[in-house]
């Protein structure tokens, strides 16, 4: 799609310094863009590329405008302006409504006429599929699911029984929503399954990454609120609640019944134990192990950075002896105090 | 399904205090249950809900019976009693035997007449499928697999060549059993594949979570014994053996050839190195890194709990200097010892 | 397949001590092999099995030859020799070219006559599939993908739009290549999607494990070079570049835009942050958290080994107080220095 630069700038409420009639047909990095493309600067460490970029226009904040010889689109939030301009230049692939002949759709399913059911997709009894929904190839939608308008299941997504998706969700391949939670009762060493009777309910504008799994609730539902963004290979256990606009990076996991607030972020491979409460705007760095409730906004960590192997081995050995260190330190303090007493007394 | 309360209590060998003719049609949490539902108390911190619960009956241990105004079902193991009662109220969805017209079943496959092969499922040559087996939509069963009676593959499960499943297994969507193990030989920096010639053999009553992967053995088989329970997104490498009734939480991984005993538990995101031996009844907490054999029953950990970021950064910096700390501590001890000698000598 | 031992030894350039006309029909471990099978010794700790092995031949290095009563195939790299001999005895399953009637192949796709498209596989518009490619059951190949000669997608693999695979790649079930990267711009607390416009490009001889996910680039491509080997459940984020012959064990993750060199190895559950650079021949052990660039070859770690729970809890508590320890240690050093001054002065 080709757009006038003036129209693009206006669409995001940005100031344009340059020719509004320039034709923009693509996007590129500052160093890689070619004529006809628009680029952006969000990370100051790349600002030296401004002088030589071949982009026809650059989205940036006002302070860098003078360093750029190309047309500039000035925004307080260049990343956001870029996202919106790129979305106009590259809208999601359109599709014809209908269903592929190889799709298997139960006759009791209510599929909106503007939706698409792709090849080898399977849609069960009593499923409700809203306007403009895209069900990609190989998806499995079990009985009783509801998918609201504008949602897109890319390919090979599984929604187990009674899962509900809000409007404009985007679910990537291999994601599984509504599989049984990991509920086990122990009978003298032998595990017995606890029926998982809740559902998964997902709000609007939720994005779920490839091969991520969201388990159904044991009794109550597992709930992802509006605007939640989950990366790939994430595990959300039964009865977890995730608040609005919380984002989680890949390979993170949240154990059962934990409640997470709004606007939180979790670095990759974070692990959250069950039955705790995370407040709003709480942020964890990668590989953090979250073992208790964190109600206050803030930044929290526990990951240890990798270092040279032999030095690391020595440090690990010392960690084991910290208890001993502490005792020896205390003993020394006592001895030195006595010595100070002895030494100073003679001076009195 | 609606049941008499008396029948439910009797079915789990529990004492009923209340009207045996009450009709129970559902389950709920103590705080959320409504009339006609049965609830349970297993976590003492919820006991204050007993006074006000609207549940018609509550499963609990004897000590809490007097605090509950509803009918009580008294059990030494309320969680287990609940699991069994819930399983009666909500039996697994029944299915008609047969095969969906869109399923692709090799003519050499031996499929029991009471089994179901779902839409778009693919069953290869020489597969054996036992009585009452449910193969959900989109499953792929490669040639030579054997699936024993009563097992259920929910949807989009892959069993690679020659995988064997015991009776009454439950495999959740996206799980992959029998993919090649990660076997590589190095030829002057270039990796060459080592053929993976073993199988995956799974015992009875094994549950495998969504998107979990169990690799086939390199030479011998990878083996999950009866009653093993695996959560989502777990990785079991080639030649691993997992003993009876061992349970593992999500995102855990076990490297090649490790042998794990019976009745073990692994917290989420545990990582176990290869070629070691874990005994029976060994328990690891979340994010534990298991680097050596643990033969003795017990509880083991290595995860570091998340804490406030700036404090954490200081602690991490200190960890790197532990070796230096140790040396300085030793030096101080030596000096103080000398001082004590010097100081005390004059007293003699 | 049955082979002459002499032919097998010659095929890998190894010296044979024994009867070249022995017929070898299989492989086995030293302790498990039976007559007609060939075994190998790579780990010296198993050398005591040499005396009693029932294998007809053993691949080993020269130093162990005399301890083996069976025929020996002497190689400087027994593991590699074994891999190649096993590959001859157990070649990949052959297949007839063509397409299963249930496969859905867009008429614009260019599928080589020697390729196979399996049951319930879906191949989109403008896809190019090379000679001898195997597309297993339930795979989804979105429009514009290119798959070079000899590659094998075992089952239920997803390649999203415009993904490119080089020759002789092997992709295991559930893997997802080319799903959107996790690109989000923040609009006053609300996330907005950044279009992901790059592709995934994979070189030759790349193996990708079950349920591993490789995201497409945001602008530039995500690139796996020739010979990269990825285990199961790995997450490679957008714009990552992985160099030739680098291998990564299961449950590892690499965040966006990180560049990794050649010949690196990553232990299981390693986590690498975004926007850093890892040089050639850099090696990380399991659960390492890689938070900065590592340009020098070497071995690096940060994982903490699991230990007995109560001891661990004490060590964790001490870690939190390391800052306090450091201050007390410094204070003691100062005091002891003063004391030494005081004590020694009288000696002057």
Automatic annotation (TrEMBL), chains A, B, C:
Keywords: Acyltransferase, Hydrolase, Lipid A biosynthesis, Lipid biosynthesis, Lipid metabolism, Repeat, Transferase. Residues 21-87 form the UDP-3-O-[3-hydroxymyristoyl] glucosamine N-acyltransferase non-repeat region domain. GO terms for cellular component: membrane. Gene3D superfamilies: 1.20.5.170, Hexapeptide repeat proteins (2.160.10.10), MurE/MurF, N-terminal domain (3.40.1390.10). The keyword Hydrolase applies. It catalyses: a UDP-3-O-[(3R)-3-hydroxyacyl]-alpha-D-glucosamine + a (3R)-hydroxyacyl-[ACP] = a UDP-2-N,3-O-bis[(3R)-3-hydroxyacyl]-alpha-D-glucosamine + holo-[ACP] + H(+). GO terms for molecular function: hydrolase activity; N-acyltransferase activity; UDP-3-O-[(3R)-3-hydroxyacyl]-glucosamine N-acyltransferase activity. Its EC number is 2.3.1.191. The active site is at 238 (proton acceptor). It is an enzyme of class 2 (transferase). One of its GO terms (biological process) is lipid A biosynthetic process. Coiled coil: none annotated. It comes from the Bacteria. Pathway: Bacterial outer membrane biogenesis; LPS lipid A biosynthesis. InterPro entries: Hexapep (IPR001451), LpxD (IPR007691), Trimer_LpxA-like_sf (IPR011004), UDP_GlcNAc_AcTrfase_non-rep (IPR020573). Belongs to the transferase hexapeptide repeat family. LpxD subfamily. Homotrimer. Catalyzes the N-acylation of UDP-3-O-acylglucosamine using 3-hydroxyacyl-ACP as the acyl donor. Is involved in the biosynthesis of lipid A, a phosphorylated glycolipid that anchors the lipopolysaccharide to the outer membrane of the cell. This is UDP-3-O-acylglucosamine N-acyltransferase. It comes from endosymbiont of Riftia pachyptila. The lineage of its organism: Bacteria, Pseudomonadati, Pseudomonadota, Gammaproteobacteria, sulfur-oxidizing symbionts.
